[in-house]
Amino acid sequence: MSGVPIRIRVTAAFAIAMALVLAASGWFLYARLSSHLATQLDQELQVRAQDLRTLVRRPGASLASDEGRLVERGESYAQLVEGGRVVDATPPLGARPILRGDQLQAALRAPLYADLGSVPGLNEPSRVLAVPARRGGRRLVLVVGATTQNRAETLASFRDELLIAGPVALLLASLAGYLLAGVALRPVEAMRRRAAEISAETPGERLPVPATNDELQRLGETLNEMLERLEDALRREREFVADAGHELRTPLALLRTELELALRHAESPDELRAAVRRSAAEVDRLAQLSEDLLLLARTEHGELPLNVETLEASDVLESVARRFRWRADEERRLLRPEPADGLRVRADRLRLEQALGNLVDNALRHGDGRVTLSAAAVNGSVELHVHDEGPGFPPAYLERAFERFTVPEPGRDGAGAGLGLSIVRTIAEAHGGSARAENTAEGGADVWLSVPR
User: Fold this and answer.
1) What is the CATH code for 308-452?
2) How far is 262 from 254, CA to CA, in rounded Å?
3) By CB atoms within 10 Å of each CB, which of 139, 263, 301, 339 scores lowest?
4) Coil, helix or strand at residue 338
């Protein structure tokens, strides 16, 4: 039924359930009526037997003479039996007992009910009651009976009414279920129509949410929250592409300018070599920018692979310090890793050194004075710090320092695309940690990332 509309499926399920309920109710009512009629017939036989037993005690009384008063002609009958011989009977029963000998013997001891297929003169099913009776000291059996035709006709009439009323009730209930299903699903159809109109060119559009405080309302709210997340992801994707394009445009333009100047105006090998050096620097910047963008894009899709191993924090700090010591020497700055007291971390060495390298690069580029690398154990994690003695971060920049393409305000000038700290945070979060930055009371910036110990 996958291709059947849900409204039809709901109506069909409702109709099946209703049909079962109607069938069960009809059977119950029919059974109750049948039981009630049977009980009523037995009570009538008891009353008639009591009256006729009183009659047969009188000397000279006859069952045939009483027909019409206690025994209704054509509907009921009576028979008085002694020792297997009919003593008295209402016409047209005749002289043959209507009960077997064992039944008559049982009736002498206690009242006996029995159902008969037919009796002489009455070709209809009937029910009889046999009770012990006395006449002049003789023990007899009084048998009173009545046809069950009226009971059968009543049940048949009731059954016919059920067979007519049941389908009509089922049809009306199914129609009501169809209408109610349509009313219940109307908000879903409204949400579907609105969803078909929503696209990337219509930001801010949301699905109509019915104020019903039920599953439909929660569905609409959940879908609207999903649309909000998708719009936010699309917005960030567009901003990422726009910022990336802007950052790539600058080195490409400089590279093109340098090459054109070299082709048109370079008059000596030294000028050509200088142009090539400047072009190579821009190519390096493009390559680094491309690597950074690729890293962020892979992280956005949860595809940043990590080769996690146990590392000595001192080794990691010393390795990063060695890579940047030549720059510190050129700038006559002190770059010093502090002992890590045997701390170990679970991390990817390449990614961890990349993140620390970005922090050291920022400290050398934007900071001043001594640059210190240190490690400390905090709450089951290891924090790897890079501290410099420069002017620190502008206060307004600290809150968004780790956002993409964000550069500090004047005071920490220098070239850069604003991706360094963003990559630091990305690598830290990939390890299950975090990254933070603050200005120290002694002056300078302290930036660190935490990784599992």
Assistant:
1) 3.30.565.10
2) 12
3) 301
4) coil
